[in-house]
Design a protein that fits this description.
The structure holds two protein chains of two kinds. Chain A is an alpha+beta fold. Chain A has helices at residues 7-23, 26-34, 40-51, 70-82, 90-103, 106-117, 231-245, 253-265, 277-305, 312-336, 354-361, 372-383, and strands at residues 123-126, 142-146, 149-156, 167-173, 184-190, 196-202, 208-220, 224-225, 267-268, 271-272. Chain A is built from twelve helices and ten strands. The chains are: A alpha+beta, B alpha+beta.
Chain lengths: 389, 377
Amino acid sequence: MDFRFSKEEEEFRKELGEFLDKGLTEEIARQNWEDKGLGPEGREFARKLGAKGWLGLGWPKEYGGQGGSPMYEFILVTELARRGAHVPNDIARLMGGPTILRHGSEELKKEFLPRIARGEIEFALGYTEPQAGSDLAALEIRAVEDGDDYIMNGQKMFNTECHYADYHWLAARTDPDAPRHRGISLFVVDMNSPGITIRPLWTMSGERTNEVFYDNVRVPKRRMVGEKNRGFYYIITALNFERLTVYTIERLHPILNSLIQYAKETQYNGRPLAENPIIRRKLAQMAIDFEVGRMIEYRAYWMICQGLTPDYESGIAKVFSTELQQRLMNVGMQILGHYGQLQEGSKWAPLKGRIEREYRASFLTTLAAGSSEIIRNIIATRGLELPRV
Amino acid sequence: MDFSFTEEQEMLRKTARDFLEAECPKSLVREMVEDEKGYSPKLWRQMAELGWMGLVFPNEYGGTDGSFLDLVVLLEEMGRACLPGPFFSTVVLGGLTILKAGNEQQKREFLPKLINGDIVLTLALTEPQAKYNPASITVKAVADGNDHVINGTKLFVPDAHIADYMVCVARTKDEAVLEDGITLFLIDAKSPGISYTLLKTIAGDKQCEVVFDKVEIPRENMLGELHQGWAHMEKILQKAAVARCAEMIGGAQQVVEMTADYVKQRVQFGQPVGSFQAVQHHCANMLIDTEGAKYITYEAAWMLSQEMPCNMQVAMAKAWVSDAYRRVTALGHQVIGGVAQIEDHDMPLYSKRAKAAELAFGDADFHAEIVAQELGL
């Protein structure tokens, strides 16, 4: 048992940390978290990370990677999260890339992996549809063979990042006669293909997501990832990875720190908020929960480094991280009191209105990438082997 | 980073689990609740022969030089089995204190006997104001020449009534800073002037009121330096808290397994209740709580083993596990249902012990305040 990182890992963390402290401006971080789209600064930053070799740390060198241990990838994810940002092309980097690496053709690997590792391209997830949320296997978008291509028709919902991603990581039905889970394939679609229409949906926290319409969109067969009709199973693996990295508990670190700082510095009727026993108790509990969740998450990272594939373990980490997020935002709003409702830009708004915004954003994360309810089903059936209905 | 145990630790775990499954059945656990001494001398002897008492003590006293983390592995299995008796009091509360604070002569006199299973020890620390901080120590040890005379009442002292020796934490000087002025004494439990009253507790563990009436302690029975006992106590209490967490995570895992097994078999409305989502979600919550409890405990235990500064992690572990084990047993009751309410079901053994363990060495509120201080609030 040893909970330290290796000397080399710590050296990497230090080098990365110094680079981020200098180059990751609030502007770039905001482009990340607001999901409005990477502007030129954000894209340039992604390329700089790519040029350092930091976007392909765990990938084989032949595809533009560094051939290192997966732990370096997790250090990148967590160090960015602790600075209020995520990997600039995290969908391509953390979901698309690893799936292509594991299941894609040689041609597909050569076409995409080096560009992802250089920070040049981003993917957008294309899973959810109006009638296929938690029941993803109910998706209907249809891919019909036509010579060397598929012709696609249908609609996607809540596909975030489509408006600025280069490629759509699309799940489509290739065999309507097979059992539902076994008639779905995964494709990498050029986002600027003729026939794709994107309409914005604005969330209550000011983030943009999208409805996406496919009207006779032509996608080359060589852009299918892995085997035909096996897409659903690739998605499960990608989802387990997404749960662990995109929802890393380290996202909450800067928020918790800012609340602790706020409590120390802010006075109410002549006394620091930090002396209020209720505030002490709540903030201490948030710190305790954070450390417990961090250990749960790192245990799943360790499994990956051992060559194991976390399954319900990623689910536990994600449920814990996102539910703590909601508790933390509630505590934050309670500490801010009346001031909590003031938005960024308002006179009197504390902490630049960040808590108010994060509070609005916190309603989503227990739903995306597998709702807490679905994941609890998985924890019970796969973690405890309880019978399915 | 490494979340695995060594081969030796896994072997220790397996041996302990198999042994306790065979030699510490629930019938014995129940018997010991009624039994005044609260432990089986036969089982005690077997444990000593297995080398369990000596696990964390140096070779030179007859121990096997194991780490605190090794002890945590063993305690986890003891918690899983609801092992009754004074192992924890003797090894953790008494033994580790003597190892830390005692001089060479004291260590040579007491540790071999402890390791051999010949003596039972405990720690008399808490008082009617019942806290784990120096402010609450009011039992006085007044100097009389080179010796001391102790007067006062200690409360919630585990296994005092069967102990051969007690470490008594007493105030020898009134100081503005309350930590200064506390001294540790190793007391013969049969000394004149000590009286014991066994308390009736929810978990049936043996805790006592201990009244000291003009009890004389010779100088050579002082542990460590005069007025400087609290520094030792802080470390011992950290180890005791995490050691208790180890027992709790063992119990929690047993509860999760017992509950999952039951819901796979119990049929209502024509199907196993384990197929209903409400039941599945309760069980998932039990597993989430237990996983969290395990890893925060291992983190704190490993840091203590490595002698790293870990005030924060120890407090976080005891705070989390105190609440988590309670939640796990409450959900276990809810999921298994009516039969788990009945006294002869195993579940009440765990839920009652969860409550006792929650309180021991500081509950969640106590340790959350330590976390708040460590955060600089």
